[in-house]
Design a protein that fits this description.
The structure holds 2 protein chains of 2 kinds. Chain A is an alpha/beta fold. Chain A has 12 helices and 9 strands. Chain A is about 45% helix and about 15% strand. In chain B, α4 packs across α9 and α9 packs across α11. Classes of the chains: A alpha/beta, B alpha/beta.
Chain lengths: ~270, ~400
C-alpha cells in the first residue's frame, strides 16, 4: 500500500509528539443506537487517538463477559451491520482525521458479502478492519479484498505467535499490529508488562509497523506502562463495563452515561500524555 | 486408520484438501492464539495415523474397552411392521458409555497423550459426549473440564451426575441461551486461555481443520464394520444407509466408507423440531445458509444479519445451529439426501422401537428411525437398509415421559 492512510498519519503524528496512542473500543449500538452513537462521537475529544468500533456478534468466542454482554445488549437493541456502517459514516462526518477501525467476527461480514462489505466500509470512512477469526491462511477471503479497497487489515499477534510464524502474520498486515498481551480472552487476567515489552521488542525486529497492545489493559497506569514499550494501548472491556455500570435495571442509559465514559477516557488518556 | 482408500481422482473420499476444505466448506477460522496449536495438532494427527503403535493401541481400546465391533442386527419386527425394506440396526448404542461418542474420544485422548497435553476440555449438549470424554479422561488419568449450557445442565441431570462420578468438573455456561453452542464458545475461550497444556476433545465432525476429518476418521469404524458385517450377512453391500444428524459425527462415520459406492443411497436425517416452516428446528442444511462459526464454514441457522440463531429439537444432542462441513459439501454435490424428522415423529419412533424391538433408542437415532418409517414401506423386501442406532435412550426417559404427560 503506497498511499498514507489515516492510521499511518496518526501514528506518524504521535511519533513526532513522542507519545503512544490510546486506542479505545466500544461495541456499536451498545446500549442503543442513539446513546452508542453519542459515546462514539465523544471519544476523540475525550482523548482517544484511534477508535475501534465493535461489530456485535451472537457468538463472540474471543471475548470475555464484558464484551459478550455489550454484544448482547447491542443486538437486543436492534443493531445490524447496516446500522454499524451508518454509525461509522456519522463518525467520519464529525471527525475527519481520527482513525476508525471496525472489529469483530467473520460471519456477519460473510453474510453481508465480503466484497460489498469492504466497499461500503470504505465509503463510510472506515480505515481498517480487525476480524478475529480470519487467520492469514484465509487472506483471500477478506484481507486481500480489503487491501484492494485501500483499507488497512490489522492482524493480531499473540504470545503463541513465535518467530517462525510471525512473518506469516505480518505479511498482509498494515496500519498497525495488534499484540494480544496474554493467551486468553478480552478483559481477562493480570498484565505482565515486562513480558509484553519483551514480545513487542521481538516483534519490532521483524516489522516497522506500529505495535499496539490490548487485552487486560484497564487503567491509566497500565496504559502508561504499556505505552512505554509499545506504540499504544487498547482499552475495551473497561470502557464497555463503564457503559454497563451506567444502565438502569431495564438496560436503559442513566442520565450522565456519556459524561461518565468521557471522564474515563480522559483519565485513560493521561497514560499517554503525562 | 480408516481413510486410506486409494486416492482416485473422482473419489468423494479424498477430502479435505491441504487447507482443510471440503469444497468451499471447512477451513480454519480461529483466533491467532489457537492457530499454531491447530497446525501442530494437524501434524500430530497426520503422524499418528501412520504410526502402527497408535493404530494398535486404538484398536485394542476399541475392542476391549469400548466393546467393538458393535453388532449389525436384523430388526425383524420393525421390518415386518414397515412391510418393505429389510431393516438392519447398527447397534452403536451397545458401546461402552451408550453411544458412538466413545469412538472419537478414544482416538482423541490417545492423541492428547501423544502431544504431551495434561488437561482435557470438552463441550457437551445432551451429555453423551461429555460422559464419553469424562470416561476416557478417567481411564487415562487426566483432569477434565466439561462445558455445558446451564439450560442443559438442568435438563440432563443424570448425565451431569455421571460425569461427576467419573471425576470431571462441570462448568455450567450461562452466556447466550445456555445451550450447546454457548458451551462450545466457552470451551474455545478456555482453550485460548490454557493453550499450552490443554487438549480440546471436540465431540462432532465440526470445528477448525483437522477436527472434521479427524473425528470422521475415528467414527468411520462404524461404516467400515457395516461393510464387512453386511457382506458376511447378505453377501453384498447395503442398498441404503440412514443416520441422524446434529453436528453429524455418527452419520459421517457410517456414510464415509460408502461414499464411492454409488449404488448405495444415503440419507441424513436432521431435526425438524416443531416443523421446518417455522423457526423451531435444528435443520441447518434444510433451513440454514452457509456461514462461518466455531472454526469452520458450513451451513448455519442464522438471521438476516448473520447472527446465529438457536436450534430447537426435542433431542438436546441435535440442538445445534451448525453441521459438520463435510455434510455441507455432500449436500451441495448431491451425494447424500438430507431430510428431516419432527419432534413428534421422533417420539413415535422412540416408542415403536421400544415396543417392537425391546430396544429403547436415544431421541437422536429416533429421528433416523422416523425417516426409516417413511422410507422402508416404499422399498422392496430385498432392499437392505442400515440405520445407525447410535445411542441408547436411558438418558431420555425423563424427557420422553414429560412429553407424553406421564409422571414418573
Amino acid at each position: 500500500m503506497t498511499d498514507m492512510t489515516r492510521i499511518d498519519a496518526c501514528f506518524a503524528n504521535l511519533k513526532a509528539q513522542g507519545r503512544g496512542a490510546l486506542v479505545t473500543f466500544i461495541t456499536a449500538g451498545d446500549p442503543s443506537y442513539d446513546v452508542g452513537l453519542e459515546v462514539l462521537l465523544a471519544l476523540p475529544d475525550a482523548g482517544a487517538d484511534v477508535v475501534e468500533l465493535g461489530m456485535p456478534f451472537s457468538d463472540p468466542m474471543a471475548d470475555g463477559p464484558a464484551i459478550q454482554l455489550a454484544s448482547e445488549r447491542a443486538l437486543k437493541a436492534g443493531q445490524t451491520m447496516r446500522k454499524t456502517l451508518a454509525m461509522a459514516a456519522s463518525f467520519r462526518e464529525k471527525h475527519r482525521d481520527v482513525p476508525l477501525v471496525l472489529m469483530g467476527y467473520y460471519n456477519p461480514i460473510y453474510h453481508y458479502g465480503p466484497e460489498k462489505f469492504v466497499l461500503d466500509a470504505k465509503a463510510a470512512g472506515v480505515d481498517g478492519l480487525i476480524v478475529v477469526d480470519v487467520p492469514p491462511e484465509a487472506d483471500d477471503e477478506l484481507c486481500l479484498p480489503a487491501l484492494a479497497q485501500g483499507l488497512n487489515f490489522i492482524r493480531l499477534a499473540t504470545p503463541t505467535t513465535d518467530d517462525e510464524r510471525l512473518p506469516v502474520v505480518l505479511q498482509n498486515t498494515s496500519g498497525f499490529l495488534y499484540y494480544v498481551s496474554m493467551t486468553g480472552i478480552t478483559g481477562a487476567g493480570a498484565l505482565d508488562v515486562s513480558r509484553v515489552h519483551e514480545n513487542v521488542a521481538r516483534i519490532k525486529t521483524q516489522t516497522d509497523l506500529p505495535v499496539v497492545v490490548g487485552f487486560g489493559v484497564k487503567s491509566a497506569d497500565q496504559v502508561a506502562d504499556i505505552a512505554s514499550g509499545a506504540d499504544g494501548a487498547v482499552v475495551g472491556s473497561a470502557i464497555v463495563s463503564e457503559i454497563e455500570a451506567n444502565l438502569d435495571e431495564r438496560g436503559v442509559a442513566r442520565e450522565g452515561l456519556v459524561d461518565k465514559v468521557k471522564t474515563l477516557i480522559s483519565n485513560l488518556a493521561q497514560g499517554v500524555r503525562s | 486408520m480408516t481413510n486410506d482408500q486409494s486416492a482416485t481422482p473422482n473419489s468423494l473420499m479424498n477430502g479435505p484438501d491441504g487447507r482443510g476444505h471440503f469444497g468451499m466448506y471447512g477451513g480454519r477460522f480461529v483466533a491467532e492464539t489457537l492457530m499454531p496449536l491447530i497446525l501442530s495438532l494437524e501434524d500430530a494427527y497426520e503422524a499418528a495415523k501412520l504410526d502402527q503403535s497408535f493404530i494398535d493401541e486404538l484398536e485394542y481400546l476399541r475392542t476391549y474397552y469400548a466393546g467393538r465391533p458393535s453388532v449389525l442386527y436384523h430388526a425383524e419386527r420393525i421390518t415386518e411392521h414397515f412391510g418393505g425394506a429389510k431393516v438392519y440396526f447398527k447397534r452403536d448404542e451397545l458401546n461402552h458409555t451408550g453411544s458412538h461418542k466413545i469412538n472419537n474420544c478414544l482416538g482423541q485422548i490417545l492423541l492428547a497423550k501423544r502431544m504431551g497435553k495434561t488437561r482435557i476440555i470438552a463441550e457437551t449438549g445432551a451429555g453423551q459426549h461429555g460422559v464419553a470424554v469424562a470416561t476416557v479422561a478417567a481411564r487415562f488419568n487426566l483432569p477434565c473440564t466439561v462445558f455445558m449450557g446451564a439450560t442443559d445442565v438442568e435438563r440432563q441431570k443424570p448425565n451431569v451426575f455421571r460425569m461427576k462420578l467419573l471425576g470431571a468438573e462441570i462448568r455450567p455456561v450461562t452466556a447466550g441461551r445456555g445451550t450447546l453452542k454457548d458451551a462450545m464458545n466457552e470451551a474455545l475461550r478456555d482453550w485460548v486461555t490454557n493453550v499450552d497444556d490443554t487438549f480440546y476433545i471436540i465431540g462432532t465432525a465440526a470445528g477448525p481443520h483437522p477436527y472434521p476429518a479427524m473425528v470422521r476418521d475415528f467414527q468411520s469404524v462404524i461404516g467400515n464394520e457395516v461393510k464387512e458385517q453386511m457382506i458376511a450377512a447378505e453377501g453384498r453391500l447395503p442398498d441404503s444407509l440412514v443416520a441422524c444428524i446434529g453436528g453429524g459425527s455418527n452419520a459421517i462415520g457410517l456414510f464415509h466408507p460408502f461414499l464411492d459406492d454409488k449404488e448405495v443411497d444415503i440419507y441424513g436425517v436432521e431435526a425438524a423440531g416443531r416443523g421446518l416452516d417455522g423457526p423451531d428446528h435444528a435443520a441447518s442444511l434444510n433451513g440454514g445458509e452457509p456461514g462461518v462459526l466455531h472454526g469452520n464454514r458450513t451451513y448455519l441457522l442464522q438471521d438476516d444479519d448473520g447472527q446465529i440463531v438457536e436450534g430447537h429439537s426435542i433431542s438436546a444432542g441435535l440442538d445445534y445451529p451448525g453441521i459438520g462441513p463435510e455434510h455441507a459439501w455432500l449436500k451441495d454435490v448431491g451425494r447424500v439426501n438430507y431430510v428431516a424428522a419432527t419432534d413428534k415423529e421422533a417420539l413415535e419412533a422412540f416408542q415403536l422401537c421400544s415396543k417392537l424391538e425391546g430396544i429403547i433408542p436415544a431421541l437422536e437415532p429416533s429421528h433416523a428411525l422416523a425417516y426409516v418409517a417413511k422410507l422402508a414401506p416404499t422399498l422392496p423386501k430385498e432392499h437392505l437398509l442400515v440405520m445407525n442406532l447410535c445411542g441408547r435412550g436411558d438418558k431420555d426417559v425423563f424427557a420422553v415421559a414429560e412429553h407424553l404427560g406421564v409422571e414418573i
